[in-house]
Design a protein that fits this description.
By secondary structure, the chain is mainly β. It has 1 helix and 5 strands. The chain is about 10% helix and about 30% strand. A hairpin with an 8-residue loop joins β2 and β3.
Amino acid sequence: MANLFGSYDPNAEAQADLGKLPTGEYLAVITDSDMKPTNDNTGEYLELIYEVIDGPLKGRKHWERLNLKNASAQTVEIANRQFASLREAIGVPNPRDSQELHNKPHIIRVEFYPAGSLYTSGSRKGKSRDRDEATIKSWKKHEGALPAGGTAPSSAPAANNQPASPTPPWANKAA
């Protein structure tokens, strides 16, 4: 147990449901990644956690999965094409560790699908979605100037529970 007396604002408003990222293009970085087993333990997917680093949705997160090891050859082929697009967009052609993908600004195009909409392809084609979904449809190299304040968010949250600084820790050191 923990004593919470004086540790929080009892008058604070509840967090609004942020939901999934809406359809659009976002300047984002990967902040975390891991290989995880599929639900049926017949394969593995690369889970990527993205953070939007510019615009009105700055600080919002998105989770993406690439099924790089799967019993379905078509699933693996699609995931490898997606992974090739990601690697090209961030300029890391042959990573040995997924951490090499982190904090590299690039553009993601997200497509949002509301609950109740129909799947248009794959094994669930024609079936209704039971929840809102958002997925990355393309990855592009970021050619423009980076947002003011740095290149990518820090992986550690700020001590005051504010969104992480967009400047990575190594960029904060005086030259």
